[in-house]
Amino acid sequence: MNIQIIKILDKAKQGQRLNTSDAKKLLQAKGAAIYPILSAAHEKKLEFNGQEVSYINNYNLNLTNVCTNNCLFCGFNTELHAKDAYLISKEELKKELEYAKEKKVSEICFVSGLHPDFELEDYREIIKTIKEIYPKLHLHGITPEELEHALRNKDLDFKAGYQILKDAGLDSVPGTAAEILVPKVREIICPEKISTSEWIKAIKSAHQVGLKSTATMMYGHLESIEERVKHLKLIREIQDETAGFTEFIPLSFIHQNTELAKKGLVDGGASGREDILMIAVSRLFLDNIANIQASWVKYGPKLAQLMLNAGANDLGGTLFNENISRKAGKDTAEYLAPAKLKAMIEDIGAQPKQRTTLYQKHNL
Ligand code: SF4
Helices in 33-150 by DSSP H: which ranges? Predict the structure, then answer.
């Protein structure tokens, strides 16, 4: 067995913080050396969460697929006058919410394209409408990217923007649009998107006004192992400062229907080894984030289930109505009923627990 890996895992077991060189070595492990890493990450998961594995009954709402950006990894966006362009009407929104109510979801996750007509007032109105129809629901929406779009014609900073949306009823924020927080990779895969420094500013602003958020990383495209580690370090530093992240969600890049694939810039996403190591290393490196999610939408239910014994303690949501991964070419991205998620968790030997968005049982 690789002596360097044993030393790093011992360090983690003793509760010492791993450095970036440790994380890089773990992510590069191959052959049988990966198993002790998965096992150490599982031990760490047990320290954080015991035998419990959680999931959430939630509903995905994509208000529009029209987007002024053209990120090369996106298979969801379209142009304003394209045949497949849609913008959900107030009536349709009400219908969707009625359906969500029937499914007894506890959260609406609300992420959309950047519609050229959407202003801060529109986002505010949508939040208020949802809250009027379904006041008890947790509303998880408005990524840093969407907020930047909403504020483009306003003389307001991120903090003021998130405060206005919080006052309207927003409960928490998806930490997406982070992709890889490394400028030179962002310049290629999403040149129009919010910059690394602005993303950090926006997410800290959300935390400062009392909105918790998730933290994400999309990997498996053009970034190097060092850049994955850089991203993890940034997330850990933000969490040291704000304690505002509820969970970390690694998102393996789905390439099929994206411009990156069409232009021949990628020939596939991350391998299964890379995916499971990403979960395990996230668990070992992010010693200040209580929850690591294995997204069944991104990994497929079978690999996601195995990740529950490799550092992950959450399977994500039922995601009624998931569109974004499906449009990018993932054939497993349909909703999973709570009973199905529960069965997957029991089958791997863990205790299922339906959770709220904020994992309120943890006090980090
Ligand atoms: S990832 Fe988001 S911002 Fe980028 S093109 Fe797709 S919908 Fe638009």
Answer: 34-49, 90-102, 120-133, 144-150
